Amino acid sequence: MSPSLVFTDSSTSTASRLLPFSRTATPFNAAVSLLRSVGPLNVRPFVLPPLRTLSVNSSNNPSPVINDKSGGEACAKVIDGKMVAKQIRDEIAAEVLKMKEAIGVVPGLAVILVGDRKDSATYVRNKKKACESVGINSFEVRLPEDSTEQEVIKFISEFNNDPSVHGILVQLPLPSHMDEQNVLNAVDIVKDVDGFHPLNIGRLAMRGRDPLFVPCTPKGCIELLHRYAVEIKGKRAVVIGRSNIVGMPAALLLQREDATVSIVHSRTKNPEEIVKHADIIISAVGQPNMVRGSWLKPGAVVIDVGINPVEDAKSPRGYKLVGDVCYEEACKVASAVTPVPGGVGPMTIAMLLSNTLSSAKRIHNF
Ligand code: NAP
């Protein structure tokens, strides 16, 4: 089977994960399969707040979160990621147009998809659509499952050298016969829009250093905090989860913003006691409704990254998506909380577009 190269496509990478419940041939399991891959992303010299230099449509501007929950009926503000992501896409579309008119350059994102996983294909499709919506060119390479590592790296090299490509994503997971590190390391750091290159992560961790790209999901979490005027400096933050793609970079980002950060993971004893002290919680675990209202400090701000399908007989699909945090309970205690879906999810793709735009700007000195 020969690889097909399709231009004017788009996309992203994905991380596989195990989700609860495994059965066969049900809509629920289809959802589980789909969600095994989660958003990719990233690019850009790290200067927070990344997108705040772009203007926000004032009529849709999210209002600041009030962190005072003393007295009165408890009802958290909903942090509307869908709405913020739309604002960001509009801002990016305007910038893309400006760049095209000024210097004739259109940002381009290339995605390499290996194998036939439906979830990965869906992700790639969504990213292509997102690129189209803001005027970013997308390029897609689809390779068969039995491709060799060298074949994948050959396409990466071509995109590394292609001046019309400003961001490269290798959709994860790769087939098991490939060494993911070898493949990802082949992506030129200046086009590493997922931000997973060790140099980018290393710079993120170091004082006085700036990564070219920050992983998109954690970047989206911080952007939500900024857009809702949540003060981070001097606050106690807890990140639940320490994965390379979400938890760990989220903790680094919060620290760069002068929060005092604790990380909770699967070996942490009494996680609720740690979470209880947090002004800001970012949860990226993959366990439905694990964080209860009783874990939260009154007035805390909760960013729920988790996307977990749970069976729901009332839904025509047989399942619904929930976060790591019990939303109904959190709403009664927190001052602000992201919903699932409609919270962090849409921000991930918006950050990918943002990173691609930033990459093009940097490469063309615009
Ligand atoms: P992951 O790689 O599986 O990492 C999960 C992390 O949670 C690990 O660090 C693990 O600890 C920790 N953990 C597991 N069980 C725990 C427990 N009972 N208590 C405390 N910590 C626990 O997952 P991920 O890729 O970071 O994704 C996490 C969730 O975010 C998933 O639901 C995923 O679907 C979602 N996600 C959403 C987006 C988006 O765009 N919205 C993007 C990416 C991921 P150890 O390190 O000790 O194993």
* Beta-strand content estimate: 5-15%
Task: Give the rounded overall mean pLDDT.
Answer: 85
Find the count of extended strands (DSSP E, 2+ residues).
Answer: 12
**What series of H and E elements makes up the topology?**
EHEHEHEHEHHHEHEHEEEEHEH
What is the end-to-end distance? Answer: 41 Å
List of distinct ligands in this structure: NADP nicotinamide-adenine-dinucleotide phosphate
What features would you describe in this structure?
The chain is of the alpha/beta class. Helices cover about 35% and strands about 15% of the residues. It is built from eleven helices and twelve strands. Helix 2 packs parallel to helix 11 (about 345-365), helix 7 crosses helix 8 (about 245-255) and helix 7 packs across helix 11 (about 345-365). The longest helix is centred in the N-terminal third of the chain and has 23 residues, at about 80-105. It starts with a strand and ends with a helix. The relative contact order is 0.20. Bound molecules: NADP nicotinamide-adenine-dinucleotide phosphate. NADP nicotinamide-adenine-dinucleotide phosphate (NAP) binds next to helix 11.
Key descriptive features of the protein:
photorespiration, alpha/beta, 14% strand, disordered N terminus, 4-stranded mixed sheet, THF_DH/CycHdrlase_CS, Methenyltetrahydrofolate cyclohydrolase, binds NADP nicotinamide-adenine-dinucleotide phosphate, 366 residues, globular, 11 helices
